[in-house]
Amino acid sequence: MFGLMVRFTCKDESAASAFDDLVARTGELIRVNEPGTVVYAVHRVDGRPLERIFYELYRDRAAFDEHESKDYVKVFLAERDQYLSSIEVDWLDFVSAKGVDVEH
Q1: Helix, strand, or coil (residue 15)
Q2: What's the predicted TM-score (pTM) here?
Q3: What domains can you pick out in the chain, each with its CATH number?
């Protein structure tokens, strides 16, 4: 397994709404086209209306690389910055999970 967690902070409420729309469009394409993407979860943060947390889990590094190569992901990466004031990325070293079929 290969994973990451990303905290996005939007510039303002209007930017947060536009970012959510971009995320929704991209997320649908990820669900349909990426069997190697095991989990791609997007969360709003309670009490912090401008923050979003992404939790991404991929079958392996190759599946992540495949995800990053998709045209719709490249569009997301190119368009997201106009809505954001900060991005924090944590690369994760998978240990264990419940509810995820993994070979470890």
Answers
A1: helix
A2: 0.91
A3: 2-92 (3.30.70.100)
